[in-house]
Specification:
The structure holds 3 protein chains of 3 kinds. Chain A is mostly helical. Helices cover 94% and strands 0% of the residues of chain A. Chain A has one domain (19-82). The longest helix of chain B is centred in the middle third of the chain and has 34 residues, at 188-221. Classes of the chains: A mainly alpha, B mainly alpha, C alpha+beta.
């Protein structure tokens, strides 16, 4: 019985890591995209001020959200491990 | 915190555990409408935007109107959920989940409208590969991405305790719920982590939401066209968005209240409060509209007046006065006195506002384009079956997403209801005592200071 | 560096629309057909606008040939999300058909309605087309380019003959064909050019000047010194 539970528990844990990886991938992807647009605007000399201004606001916001997600992920699962 | 053995809230789990005939009928009807929309778009994708009623100079029509409209409705979640949570309003408990779901679902539909409007949707990745941040469309892309991420997170994290209940109570999809529940067992530490995360997100999501509809308005106000290039557009659109968002939320609440028998959770008092909020937003919307048109009229700029009169007495007068009727007159009449027949009045007002706010978007987009500054040939915009089909399909797709959601997750936040029963009363009493004046003489028997201590 | 501009003398314009036809022939501008024309989908890079006299029962009082005004501060390039329209160093506002996603934001932003859209696939390969100008697919925006392909050809020729580009060697189709000589094309930065001189005429004015778009198509009003 315990063996069965730990197998499904391991599957659950692996899928949870996958879940958090998806979140990281999405948000990380958006941040990478924004930086790519800054670089393009800089290279083409096409109002880089707009890109820099917007990214100064948006990237911290995305990083904050990523931080909250990570905080919840670690905070909730860490407790279970202790038990 | 959430005791799975508590069977008082079985009604909230019932839609997930059992599926009635009504569900299949509803999904069938929605699927048929979505099929119409899909055929319409397929036609457009194959032949080109020529199958719509768009032309020069009215090169934006239904699709852009729908875009602004749907993104506007997404403000339901923010206002109710975040602001009410931050202000600790106890009546928010059965409402927050539905509001948050509206936001998430409708953002996808709204963003999809832009993609439908593109002449070359096969090149939509150009926005990612070659985007220019000077363009308001890129501001849209960024802020809507931020809002989508934030609202998804803000929907998911407060749902974790409910997912844990589902994991423990409901027989099916155990692996799915277990993964998403992130090991929630309701310990003190977990509760603290969750509450802190929700508080941070509630604060974060409000400025993001304000920015979303502001940048949607900037698509119009950053051009030089008469009656678009107005500084009022940012706040005007945000107010309109919150207005339409509350109306959509009320309609969704009434629909699911009926469908799932949630009368004991969604009581007339909740609709009364939401109705009062709707009334306030109607007055606020009217004030902004009045200020906008008075300014234009008083200034008498000839090109602006051309657009102005085309809305007031010209070809667009039915839509303009229809908007005034449905956004202002009907809601005021319905919501003035919410004593009796609350839910009926609030439903009529909300449906009226949804129609009215769609008309308002239409009135903003099309008349300005119809009246160019130069003596260009003016034509009348007559939408075709493709545009009607796309609009119907969009509404149906939103409804389908919503209905499917309610079959997988509880549509009312179970743990927040239980928190309200167990902890809410005491918290409110304690808070109330801090508002009241302290007793003048300390140590007197029976004074409130004694009680607080 | 040249700054290409145009001066259109409204006193000379007879409204014959030879410029419109020449432009259509030169740039493979499609004729969309009668049904589409009625729906308002005509593509006309050079379009002759008619200003009507309101108090004389709609009598036409003025013809205004309107190409793309090739603004020096174009509202259209500011709003393009994908850099499909941009202003090149010689002042020509270019349109990249291969990049355009058809969002039509530039059409909504242009105060002169100088941009047109391919609502269907209006153009197919056919004999008699100008091989120097590409055909536009469906779903993209197009507009007057000051016959930029002619500039490229003239430059290549000058390069091959190892000389500078002579004034008057590059001229747009509309300017070349106008029977009344109403359209004059040239380098606005060359003090010896005709357009330079005419642009400083007391009759010169710019359309919608107050908007600050700084158009490089300058009009000369009818009569003497009237705006």
């Amino acid at each position: 019985m315990r063996g069965e539970r730990s197998v499904s528990e391991r599957t659950v844990r692996k899928l949870q890591w996958l879940w958090i990886a998806v979140a990281f991938g999405l948000i990380g992807g958006i941040i990478t995209w924004i930086t790519h647009l800054i670089r393009t605007a800089w290279r083409l000399g096409d109002t880089p001020s707009a890109s820099i201004g917007i990214s100064l606001v948006s990237i911290p916001i995305f990083l904050t959200m990523l931080g909250v997600i990570l905080y919840v992920f670690v905070g909730l699962r860490g407790d279970r491990g202790e038990r | 915190m959430a005791d799975p053995a508590d069977s008082r809230d079985a009604a909230l789990l019932a839609p997930i555990e059992r599926t009635g005939r009504g569900f299949y009928v509803t999904v069938g009807i929605l699927a048929a409408v979505i099929l119409w929309g899909a055929i319409a778009y397929w036609t457009q994708f194959g032949e080109g935007l020529g199958v719509t009623g768009l032309h020069q100079p009215v090169s934006w029509g239904f699709y852009i109107t729908n875009f602004v409209f749907f993104i506007g409705i997404s403000h339901a979640g923010t206002l109710i959920s975040a602001i009410l949570r931050l202000s600790k309003a106890e009546w928010r408990r059965p409402v927050t989940r539905m509001a948050e779901v509206i936001t998430v679902m409708v953002l996808f539909i709204g963003a999809g409208q832009i993609l439908v409007d593109l002449g070359r949707p096969d090149r939509m990745l150009n926005i990612i590969r070659h985007g220019r941040y000077q363009s308001p469309l890129l501001w849209d892309a960024t802020s809507i991405s931020a809002y989508m991420t934030a609202s998804l997170t803000y929907l998911y994290i407060p749902m974790i305790p409910d997912i844990a209940i589902l994991r423990d109570r409901v027989g099916k999809w155990k692996l799915f719920y277990s993964v998403l529940a992130l090991g929630w067992t309701g310990t003190e530490r977990q509760q603290r982590v969750l509450n802190r995360a929700i508080a941070i997100l509630a604060v974060l999501v409000i400025p993001i939401a304000v920015s979303v509809h502001s940048v949607v308005s900037f698509v119009f106000s950053m051009t030089l066209q008469p009656m678009w290039h107005s500084t009022i557009f940012g706040p005007y659109f945000v107010v309109g968005a919150i207005f339409s968002g509350i109306a959509a939320l009320i309609v969704a609440m009434i629909a699911f209240r009926k469908a799932y028998g949630l009368e004991s959770y969604l009581k007339p008092i909740h609709f009364r409060y939401l109705g009062q909020l709707l009334l306030v937003m109607s007055l606020l919307w009217f004030y902004f509209t009045f200020a906008e048109y008075l300014t234009g009229y008083y200034g008498s700029d000839p090109e602006e007046m051309k657009v102005f009169w085309s809305k007031f007495t010209g070809p667009f007068w039915p839509f303009f006065w229809g908007m005034a009727l449905t956004n202002f007159v009907i809601p005021i009449l319905c919501l003035m006195r919410l004593g009796r027949r609350t839910i009926g009045k609030v439903l009529i007002a909300s449906l009226s506002v949804i129609v009215g706010m769609w008309l308002e978007r239409f009135i903003i987009v099309v008349p300005t384009l119809s009246n160019p500054r130069l003596p260009f040939g003016e034509g009348l915009y007559l939408p075709t079956w493709v545009e009607w089909g796309e609009m119907a399909g969009s509404f149906a797709l939103f409804a389908l997403f919503y209905v499917l959601f309610t079959k997988v997750f509880p549509v009312i936040s179970i743990w927040e209801i239980r928190e309200g029963r167990e902890v809410g009363l005491k918290e409110v009493e304690e808070r109330l005592l801090t508002y009241l004046p302290d007793a003048a003489e300390p140590g007197v028997v029976g004074t409130r200071t004694e009680a607080v201590k | 560096m040249a700054l290409w501009g145009m001066v259109i003398d409204l006193d000379r314009c007879t409204g014959c629309q030879a410029c419109v036809m020449a432009c259509k022939a030169e740039n493979n501008v499609p004729s969309v057909g009668a049904k589409e024309a009625v729906r308002g989908r005509i593509i006309s890079w050079m379009q002759v606008l008619t200003e009507e006299e309101e108090d004389h029962g709609g009598e036409v009082k003025r013809f205004v040939p309107r190409p793309c005004l090739q603004c020096d501060d174009p509202p259209c390039i500011k709003v393009c999300p994908v850099y499909a329209t941009y202003r090149n160093p010689e002042g020509i506002v270019a349109q990249i058909y291969a990049r355009c996603i058809g969002c039509r934001f530039c059409m909504a932003a242009c105060p002169y309605n100088a941009k047109y859209f391919n609502w269907y696939r209006y153009q197919k390969e056919a004999p008699g087309q100008n091989p120097d100008v590409s055909l536009r697919p469906k779903g993209v925006v197009e507009k007057c380019t000051f016959c930029h392909h002619r500039l490229q050809k003239a430059r290549e020729r000058a390069l091959a003959e190892r000389r500078e580009l002579a004034p008057g060697e590059y001229v747009t189709a509309c300017a070349e064909v106008c029977p009344a000589g109403a359209i004059v094309f040239g380098d606005l930065s060359d003090p010896g050019s005709e357009v330079f001189r005419l642009a400083r005429s007391p009759r010169a004015f710019r359309l919608l000047e107050a908007l600050g778009t700084k158009p490089k198509v300058i009009y000369l009003s009818e009569g003497e010194g009237r705006g």
